[in-house]
Amino acid sequence: MKGMDREKQLELYRTMWVIRRFEERCAQSYTAGKIAGYLHLYIGQEAVALGFISALKPGDYVVDSYRDHGHCIAMGTDPKLIMAELYGRATGVSKGKGGSMHLFDAEKGFLGGTGIVGGGIPIAAGVALASRYKESDAVVLCFFGDGAINQGVFHESLNMAALWKLPVIFICENNLYAMGTSLERSSAVTDLTVRAGGYGMECHRVDGMDIRKVYEVAQHVVQKARETKEPSFVEAICYRYVGHGAADPGTYRTKEEILEWRRRDPIAIYERCLIEEGILTEELAAKIQQEAQDIAREAMAFADQSPEPDPDSLYEDVYA
User: What pLDDT, on the 0 to 100 scale, is given for residue 257?
Assistant: First the structure.
């Protein structure tokens, strides 16, 4: 990967596996009744979050959607604190009050997920406006799904970002389904770069299953935002291997479709590239996978042992 040394590439590989194993453990915990409410897993989309976030530097920001575990891990938040939040424990990143859809880690620049479809888009534009106002070089990444494209705030925010020249990159993780509705049934124009391009900003479409391709685009748009303060839009074509939420059986998709996308697993694609280039061996790959498994188990154990929030904490942090 251009401009990235061997250790950084291996670290990306490790993090991909940590996200995958963490999400698998989340699914188990949800089934066991340890995680309440909604749970949206990131299995299959790991290359998008990591490809973009690896192009950032300290001081940049990420605003997310409700499918936010993978992005939070990619930003460097301890998986134990994330799992504790999913369990509703006081040690969680949001003190057990936010749950799966409302992870937050200001220290890492992760400004939160949101349970509202498209709800993070205007927030990201606002953070980018603050960056420009303060004459900072901070860049904002905004992640959302293809279903958010039809929300009014998407169009309002992109128009304002282009008009005011804000350093924000709008990243649509197009996994082909808005909940159970396919893109073809919800959008008259299925090339989403065409819709975003109407607001006069640079647009890209990238294979979201290949982290190297994602990183290449990310480097370009992040550098552009930092230098010119202009926004960009990226449509990352990807696929979630599980349902929209943990309780979704995904019967609107065929087994053949899922199998075809599994052949393009983003971790397997990256692993093959690293082995071919002599950066990774099969023995090291097995070791890294075991380490990721251990991290996920440790996160579950930490969450299990963490205390419930004090009832009085319900009234804390209500107002900024």
Answer: 96
Does 2 have pLDDT greater than 80?
no
CA 193 to chain centre: 19
Around Cβ 164, how many Cβ atoms within 10 Å? 13
Return d(Cα 33, Cα 28) in angstroms, integer. Answer: 9
- Please write the tens of the pLDDT for every residue from 225-238: 999 999 999 999 99
Task: Tell me how many degrees the CA angle 34-38-43 measures, rounded to the nearest 5.
Answer: 90
Based on DSSP, count helices (H) and strands (E) in the chain, helices before strands. Answer: 12, 7
Distance (Å, rounded) from C-alpha 237 to C-alpha 178? 13
What 3-state class would DSSP assign to 265? coil
pLDDT for res 29: 97
| E strand or H helix that includes residue 294 | helix 282-305
Q: Into how many domains does the chain fold?
A: 1
CATH number of the domain bearing residue 231: 3.40.50.970
pTM above 0.90, yes or no: yes
Residue 129 lies in a domain: yes
Asked whether 174 and 239 are in contact (CB, 8 A), the reply is no
Residue type, 7: E
Residue 229 in any domain: the answer is: yes
